[in-house]
Amino acid sequence: MPGPHLHVRRRTDNPNRALAKSRHSRCLPVTPDIVAFYTDYQQERTPAAAAAETGMVFVNLFRPLLGRATAYPNAKNVFDRLARRVGHPARPHMLRHSAATHWLREEVDRDVVQKLLGHASPLSRDRYRHVDESETRAAVDRARAWREDQ
């Protein structure tokens, strides 16, 4: 894949037992900002010796076992703290829904969104589209304008 990208691999031997959403390995394009953020993160994790030995993206940097793969309860704890701070539910999977909804609202081709999400079926992709009040209002206003033009 040309340009900045990441590899998503489904491995069953992950120390934290997390699995990629798709059963198939794939490449995803990312922005240069993401590469820069990850480079900064790599610098933060360098002092944790065990981090160099793992292929995991996220590792424990503030609690024992330093440098080990971040387990689901630890990741959930981070999101729970964020949720309390902002007063709104937050879960890691919501990031996928937000990205998919944004792409679909921006009229990214539905097949491209499906591929980015790693879905085999369009039916899976469609569950990620969330309609908000501004969109329903715009639809009603368009219908009214169309009716008045007739």
Summarize the structure.
This protein is mainly alpha-helical and 150 residues long.
Structure description:
The chain is 51% helix and 5% strand. It is mainly alpha-helical and 150 residues long. It has two domains: 90 residues, no CATH class; 59 residues, no CATH class. The longest helix has 17 residues. It is elongated, with a radius of gyration of 20 Å. The model has no long low-confidence stretch (mean pLDDT 86).
Task: Please tag this protein with its features.
single chain, 2 domains, two-stranded antiparallel sheet, 150 residues, 7 helices, mainly alpha
Structural topology:
Blueprint (H helix, E strand, L loop, with lengths): L4 E4 L17 E4 L2 H14 L3 H4 L19 H15 L6 H13 L4 H8 L4 H5 L6 H17 L1
Antiparallel strand pairs: 1-2
